Amino acid sequence: MSVIAVDGPAGSGKSSVCRAVATRLGYRYLDTGAMYRALTWAMLHEGVDVDDAAAVAQAASGVQIESGTDPSAPTIHVGAIDVSGPIRGDDVTAAVSAVSAVPRVREQLVALQRAEVDRARSESRGIVVEGRDITTVVLPDADLKVFITADPRVRASRRALQDAGLGKSAVDVAETETALRERDAKDSSRETSPLAQAPDAIVLDTTEMTLDEVIDRFVGLVDGLPQE
Predict the structure, then answer these.
(1) Which spans in 61-151 are helix H?
(2) Quick one: angle between helices 90-100 and 103-122, nearest 10?
(3) What whole-number distance in Å separates Cα of residue 35 and Cα of residue 46?
(4) Please, what are the averages of pLDDT over each run of 10 residues along the chain (228 residues)?
(5) Residues contacting 214, CB < 8 A, separation 6+
(6) For 18-41, b where at least 16 C-beta lie within 10 A, e where not — what string?
(7) pLDDT for the residue numbered 169
(8) At what angle do helices 90-100 and 173-189 cross, to 10 degrees?
(9) How far apart are CA 25 and CA 218, in angstroms?
(10) Which residue ranges form the domains of the chain, and what is each CATH number?
(11) What is the C-alpha to C-alpha distance for residues 218 and 17, in angstroms, rounded to an integer?
């Protein structure tokens, strides 16, 4: 069973692809972005100023986050609260980059992410882990590293469609593209664990590919790994 690390910008299709690949292979699935969103939700819920890094670092240590790794029904909880819906709200989206840039936050969540990988290994289960620093920081020794990307306009269209599916009204593709570009810039320029393509990562540009085509290509990469 393999450890698969996946990075890429927002709206590139990482979550849909990784969940489908994990399901097809019988692997566990970990959405690290949901973990950062959950901690951001906790900061907002507790009234912490997300632009105050020291305050976020102090408050974050008291937040308990639990991620369910079943790809057919991934879950995310803050304490006993199911926050899978609230973490997709506009307020969390606007604040998550600031919270994610706090070094103490990344240390805390990276430790949790590695613990989930160790748990999968102890159960002799493969795992697909997706985020923005998985191939470069969290799992630099993963069996397979993949960087999923797409043209910003295409990513914006996908994200707008996703938002519409969540019931958000008046979703504007141009505004979504601007927001994604701003998020890309923040994630790529932060001092701690910036979004970057690992030198040994395989790039999957999904701009001209259907979801099924990407999944098939991805599974083919896993099938091509050396057998233990």
Answers:
(1) 90-100, 103-122
(2) 100
(3) 17
(4) 91 90 97 97 98 97 96 96 94 93 95 96 95 94 95 84 66 80 81 84 92 95 83
(5) 13, 17, 148, 204, 206
(6) bbbbbeebebbbbbbbbbbbbbbb
(7) 61
(8) 20
(9) 11
(10) 3-219 (3.40.50.300)
(11) 8
At residue 173, the pLDDT reads: 80
Please provide the DSSP assignment of 193-210 as one string: S-----TTPEEEE-TT--
Q: Cα dist. 192→101, 136, 199 in Å?
A: 6, 12, 18
pTM value is 0.89
One-letter amino acid for residue 91 of the chain: D
Coil, strand, or helix at residue 77? Answer: strand
Q: Encoding tokens for residue 131?
A: 């985020």
Residue 167 near residue 223, CB atoms below 8 Å: no
| pLDDT score for 144 | 97
* Residue located via tokens 């899978």: 84
70-82: buried (b, 16+ CB within 10 Å) or exposed (e) per residue?
ebeebebebeeee
